[in-house]
Amino acid sequence: MNEGQILNIAQSLFFEKGYEETSLDDIAAEAKVDSNQLKERYSTKADLLLDVLSEDFIDELEEQDNQLTEKDLDRKPAEIVYDYLYKRLHPYLQLSKAMYRDLTSLALRAYESDPEQLKKFVGLDFMLVDELIGFLNQMKEMGVLSADFDSNEAAEIIYSVLAFEFVVFLSQGERSVEDCMAGVQRKVRFLF
C-alpha cells in the first residue's frame, strides 16, 4: 500500500473516531500494513496526523482554482476575500468540534515537548498566510485593490481574525462553525 492510501485511511479514522481514539495500530489494521512498518515510518501518531493535514492542505490548493475572473472585478474586495477563505477552508469546516479540540491539544503538547512537531503545525499556518498574500497580490494586479495595498500585513491580520474566531468557536460550546465563519465575514468586511 502506498503512502497516499495510508494517509487517506488515517484521515478517515482521525476524522471519524477522533485523534485520541485512533491508534497507529488501528490505522495499520485498516490499511492492511504491518504495524511495525507503519511505526518505523511514523514514530508518533502526531507525525502521521501532521502529514495527513499537510498533504490535504497542499492537495486542496492544487485542486482549487483561485484565479480572479472578469466577473470578480465588479465585486467588493471583502466579498472576494471572504469567498476565497470560505472555499479554501471548506474541507476543514466539516470537522467536529471534538476533532478541533484534539488538534489544539496536540499543538499545545507539541509546544511543550516537541519543537519540531510545533514547527510543522505552524508551517501549515504560514502556508495559508503565504497563499493569501499571493491571492491579495493577484487582486492588486487586477486593480481590485490599490497598488499600494500591503498584502503581507493584510494577510497577517486576516489570519489573526481566523485564529480569534477559532478560539471563540472552541471556547463557547454553543458556537457553531457557521457562527465562526459569520464572524470572519463581518471582520473581513470591516477590513475592506
Can you walk through the features of this model?
The protein is mainly α. The protein has nine helices and no strands. It has helices spanning 3-17, 24-31, 35-41, 45-63, 77-89, 97-113, 115-141, 151-171, 177-191. Helix 1 (3-17) packs across helix 2 (24-31). The longest helix has 27 residues, at 115-141. The mean pLDDT is 84.
Can you describe this structure in just a few lines?
Helices cover 74% and strands 0% of the residues. It has nine helices and no strands.
Low-confidence stretches: none
What integer is the average pLDDT?
84
The ordered string of helix (H) and strand (E) elements is HHHHHHHHH
Largest sheet: none
Overall shape: elongated
Helix content: over 70%
Count the strands? 0
How big a fraction of the residues is strand? Answer: under 5%
Structural class: mainly alpha
Total helical elements: 9
Measure the end-to-end span: 48 Å
Using only C-alpha atoms, the radius of gyration works out to: 18 Å
List keywords for this structure.
192 residues; mainly alpha; 9 helices; single chain
SSE layout:
Elements: H1 3-17, H2 24-31, H3 35-41, H4 45-63, H5 77-89, H6 97-113, H7 115-141, H8 151-171, H9 177-191
